[in-house]
Amino acid sequence: MVDDDSRDRELFRVILKRAGYDVLEAASGREALEALMSTRVDLTILDLSMPEMDGLEVLRAAKYMATPKILVVTGLPSAFGNTMLDAARKLGATATLDKQHAVDRLAPMVGNLLED
After folding, report:
1. Is 1 a domain residue?
2. Contact by Cβ (8 Å): 100, 78
3. Which helix (H) or strand (E) holds 103?
4. Residue 63: which pLDDT band, with cuts at 50, 70 and 90?
5. Residue ranges with strand state E in the chain
6. Which terminus has fewer CB within 10 Å in the chain: N or C?
7. Are the C-beta atoms of residues 56 and 48 closer than 8 Å to each other?
């Protein structure tokens, strides 16, 4: 889980741990890329809005690494957020999710992505 917001990382971690998943966390895009160079993961959950290196930059870089699936999430306002999620899909995101739906949809979506 890559997100600069510690509350969102905690929420996602709790949801995913309850669903039985192991979770690694990164607080920035740079931290995530460093972790991806040394750790094999089945799925990366990536926030779009982060300082220094935003989610689209991380997505571009992660596609060249051994990152099989990337779920991009955002809490950006609807119109802008939807535009950014569309851009993420065009850049190769496996799936996208608006954070306002994360509590209900995150665990089932992760399950479906990992089954494929």
Report:
1. no
2. no
3. helix 102-115
4. confident
5. 44-47, 70-74, 95-98
6. C
7. yes
